[in-house]
Design goal:
302 residues; alpha/beta; two-stranded antiparallel ribbon; elongated
């Protein structure tokens, strides 16, 4: 077996197309198709159902891909370990961020990291919390930086920082029954939860936390609008179309934009931890450990 066959099959499976996979691998489509065909011939099984669009794995292909990911992950671990032994700091670090969090966090982390490790290329992807965790399990990223209240199977977590979840609404939108303490800006969540809310689609970390808050009062949310953006939620709430719950970093991102009133959810701040997630058992070398330390320092300073 050749190591590249695992890479080629994984890329074809991820892309759902030999043509798209070949483009990413910088080879021709016939060459890729022919190569995978030879792999199938040597194994005596078909790895792909070529009659479907997009391309789908057979049962044998699913098992092959599962093993391939383990082997490729072990190869990456070996590369990291030998990088530590030789102190030849070259390679790649693959990061995943929620789509808005990347705007806030990446500029704070990337500059000091690249200053310390100029030979390490950084690849970044963004998406919802659910999709990023799947990317992590599939070996497509090394770390995902994600706020969460949960523990996940087969994933290790390191706390980077914490944030408060706050309520935003247009000035005058919340009535007396919705506010427990006007001076200290604390809402009565049981009453506030009766109003329309603007929130994110399911699959986002923020939406999962909002659903927990509603379950705590035995109520289903009256959703005015779902979106992929906390900044959009803020702007719509500022227009009096409902209220929104956002992490307090959104307030920094919206500074100078539409003004909204900001309230605490309870007398004691409702917070979540921003975690760096990585695959359980992954080798954490000097570069990876430094990344975690730099992320903590950057977020503490801001």
């Amino acid at each position: 077996m050749e190591l590249r066959q695992f890479t080629y099959v994984k890329m074809a499976a991820d892309c759902g197309s030999f043509t798209k996979a070949a483009e990413k691998l910088f080879i021709s489509q016939p060459a890729l198709s022919n190569y995978i065909g030879k792999v199938e011939e040597s194994l005596g099984v078909k790895l792909f159902d070529r009659s479907s669009t997009p391309l789908k794995l057979t049962y044998a292909g699913e098992q092959y891909l599962k093993r391939s990911r383990v082997i490729l992950s072990q190869m990456e671990d070996m590369d990291r370990e030998f990088r530590d032994i030789t102190h030849h700091m070259r390679g790649r670090l693959k990061l995943g961020f929620p789509s808005e969090r990347i705007i806030y966090m990446l500029p704070l982390i990337l500059a000091p990291f690249k200053q310390r490790y100029p030979g390490i290329d950084v690849k970044v992807i963004s998406g919802s919390g659910n999709s990023l965790r799947e990317n992590l399990r599939a070996g497509e990223v090394d770390f995902v930086l994600l706020p969460t209240w949960s523990k996940y199977k087969d994933i290790s977590q390191v706390t980077i920082s914490w944030e408060e979840l706050v309520v935003v609404a247009a000035k005058g939108y919340l009535q007396e029954e919705h506010v427990k303490d006007r001076e200290r800006k604390i809402v009565d969540w049981r009453q506030l939860s009766k109003l329309p809310i603007i929130t994110l689609y399911k699959g986002h970390a923020l939406r999962s936390s909002v659903d927990v808050l509603y379950r705590n009062v035995g109520r289903k949310p009256d959703i005015f609008l779902e979106s992929h953006s906390n900044m959009l939620s803020y702007r719509l709430a500022a227009q009096g179309l409902g209220f929104a719950i956002v992490p307090d970093i959104t307030l920094d991102l919206m500074e100078g934009s539409m003004e909204a009133e900001v309230y605490h959810l309870s007398e004691y701040p409702v917070t979540w931890d921003v975690q760096a997630l990585y695959r359980e058992g992954t080798y954490i070398g000097e570069v990876e450990q430094s990344f975690l330390e730099i992320a903590k320092e950057a977020m503490r300073a801001n």
